[in-house]
Amino acid sequence: MSWGFLRDLLSGVNKYSTRIGKIWVAVVFVFRLLVYIVAAENIWKYEHDEFECNSRQPGCENVCFDHFFPVSHIRLWALQLIMVSTPSLLVVFHVAYRENREKHHNQKLYKSPGKIDGGLLCTYLISLILKTGFEIVFLVLFYKLYNGFKVPRLVKCDMRPCPNTVDCYISKPTEKMIFLYFLAAVSCLCIVLNLSELSYLIFKHSIKCYLKRYIKKRQ
């Protein structure tokens, strides 16, 4: 696939984000998207071909590989990248809706279509909740599927059609494990950023509403 679409999406969202949101976009673009394209994709490129078992029984190696790697690390990482970026489309669509509404009525309906207030604030908060949820779900998936982000050098397989328990060797286990830890660390950082932005927006909106009520009471 072309990662240019994801880059353009993140760049578009950056226009309407808060400062914390801009940091999140930078982290996703530099520490996830670029790392994926430049380094990680090459490490797992030939993972099936480099998976070796000490048995020549037809089908044994394929069955063992499928058992220990039900989903490829790199494909799951790519899916995570797409899923955590997709909720940002909600914000882009909402801003586009505002702009289209102004054109349709041929008048200024909003101070700024990209200003985070009213309905756009709700959309933005929903997108943050969805992104945080996806991050947590994928962290749990990685942890469950790969035994706590560990990549062993040797695995023992007794699945059919293997004639007995065979030894299978995983290529570049240390390098893969380092990238998995890096992935987990960046995911945790993104969760912290999303929760911080969510708290900031809710706090800011609460203060704004409180001040409005206070001013009305004073008047």
UniProtKB/TrEMBL annotation:
UniProt record similarity statement: Belongs to the connexin family.
Domain Connexin cysteine-rich: 134-201
Localization terms from the record: Cell junction, Gap junction; Cell membrane
Keywords: Cell junction, Cell membrane, Gap junction, Membrane, Transmembrane, Transmembrane helix
GO cellular component terms attached to this protein's record: connexin complex
Coiled coil: none
GO molecular function: gap junction channel activity
Organism of provenance: Halcyon senegalensis
Designated name of the protein: Gap junction protein
Spans through the membrane: 21-39, 77-97, 118-143, 178-203
GO biological process assignments: cell-cell signaling
Subunit-structure text: A connexon is composed of a hexamer of connexins.
Organism ancestry: Eukaryota, Metazoa, Chordata, Craniata, Vertebrata
Residue span(s) of domain Connexin N-terminal: 42-75
Major location category of this protein: other
Membrane topology: Multi-pass membrane protein
